[in-house]
Each structure stands twice: as structure tokens, then as C-alpha cells.
Amino acid sequence: MHNFKGIAKILLLGYILIIIMLYFFQEKLIFLPTKLATEYQYSFSEPFEEIFLTAKDGAKLNAIHFKRENPKGVILYFHGNAGDLSRWGTIVTFFVEKDYDVIVMDYRTYGKSKGILSEKALHEDAQMFYNYALKYYRENRITVYGRSLGTGIATKLASQNLPNKLILETPYYSLLDVAKERFPFLPLKWLLKYKLNSSESIKNVRCPITVFHGTEDSVIPYKSGKRLFDSIPIREKKMYTIEGGEHNSLVAYDVYLEGINAVLGAGQSNRSEDK
């Protein structure tokens, strides 16, 4: 009996230690930034302009603005949780090649971007870049695109504005939903500082929504993305299920490529309509 009590105490202390570590180090689990020197020179296959915007709290946010000569519109792209613009800028040239301008930002602590991370700051920074886009494009020519972590940011942004469309690649119902898959034994509801509750935000999105998700996604389970899609109240929605698709491999599948062409192919290509 004495040994049982001792083992129980050790297990309890271990459990408490895990809770404490998760609470204080959760940002290191959620965000995986790489940093770039301020003087780092970007190099991409498409014409671009490097920009910096300053947030209300003084934080400087770095972004790349790809510009086509006669674009169909602009895609405001919110990337995943790993890397920086040297990687994501290359990834989004896929959309530039489809005759879209693209604006892709680095979150605070990523690449050349500075500032203190928080969920509130992520959403405010996203709105700042949306306002930047509005200086150059009519709102009905802005497509908001979120990938992985960025889907929660993109969904919230679309719910507070009226873009032409919202595209979500490997989205989640909420960050809590994903965390429960990995740590079902922890009281995450009270521990998680970052909620990114897409299921609540998506109720207020008024533009057409397109979702892409692979069935073999080991980072954000397919069922989380499907649950989000099923919660969308508007009629103008479509989900492309990529059988066998993993978290970072959707672009290799015809279903994704055909879906992207379908959702982006209807854009107009008349630059004179931009502001």
C-alpha cells in the first residue's frame, strides 16, 4: 500500500509538471519560426516588392507583395506555423503563376518581423495587412487564403470583412480541437492561451468558402477540417477531400490542382479596376 501511494504521488507530480511545462512553453509547440537578418535579400522567380508595416504597438511586420502586370485579383495569404518568408514566398509563387498578385506576411518573431506574439496581435496584424491590400485593390478582388495555422487567422479576418472568397488549406475546427487529439489527458480548455476558434469565426463569414484537406494529414486531422466545413452555415461552400493527401503534399494531387483552378479561375484580369 505504501509503495502504491508513493507511485501515485510520483505520477501526480509528473502530471502537474507536464501541465506547468505545457502552459509556459506552449508557444514553442505552436509556433516554429526561423529568423532572417534585416539585410537578408529575398530572391524569387516572380516580380515582388518587400514591405514593412508598423503595428499600433510599434512592432514591424515584414511581407512580400508579388505583382503581376495584369492580375485577376490579389490573394492575401496566411502561412503555416514553420519557417519564414524565404520559404513561403517560394510556395506562393504557385498562385502568382496563375496571374494573381499575392501578399504574404511573416507573423511576429518570424523572419524579419518583430514584436510580441499573442492571439490578439495576430488578428490585428492580419487586419493591418488587409487594410494595406484595400489601398491597392477593391475589396471584391481580395481572396483571403489560410494554410494550416494561418486558417484560423484567415477565417477570423474574413468574418470581419467582406472579401471575394475565403480559401482554407488543411484547416482546424479550433486549435483546442487539434490539441485534444495530441494531449487528451490534459485540461487544455484552461491551459491553452491561443484558442483560434475557427468554428466561431466561420459563422460570420459572408463570402464563398472553399476547403482543401487530405485524409492522411497527421498534423491537423482530416476530421477536424471536415467538422469545420460541416459547421459552415452559408450555402456557398465546397470541400475538396484529397484521398491520401498529407499535411504538406496537397499540391501534388490532381484534386487540389483542379479545385484551385476552379475557385481561382473566375477572377477578372483588368488591372484598371484596382484602386
Can you offer a commentary on this structure?
Helix 3 (119-134) crosses helix 4. By secondary structure, this protein is an alpha/beta fold. Helix content is 37%, strand content 19%. Residues 266-275 have low confidence and may be disordered. The strands form two sheets. An eight-stranded mixed β-sheet has the order 2-3-6-4-7-8-9-10, sandwiched between helices. A two-stranded parallel ribbon has the order 1-5. It starts with a helix and ends in an 11-residue tail after the last helix. It folds into two domains: 1-30; 32-273, Alpha/Beta hydrolase fold, catalytic domain (Rossmann fold), CATH 3.40.50.1820.
Topology, element by element:
Layout: H1 2-30, E1 32-33, E2 48-54, E3 60-66, E4 74-78, E5 82-83, H2 85-96, E6 101-105, H3 119-134, E7 142-147, H4 150-159, E8 165-169, H5 175-182, H6 188-191, H7 198-201, E9 209-214, H8 222-230, E10 237-242, H9 254-264
Parallel strand pairs: 1-5, 4-6, 4-7, 7-8, 8-9, 9-10
Antiparallel strand pairs: 2-3, 3-6
Helix pairs in contact: 3-4
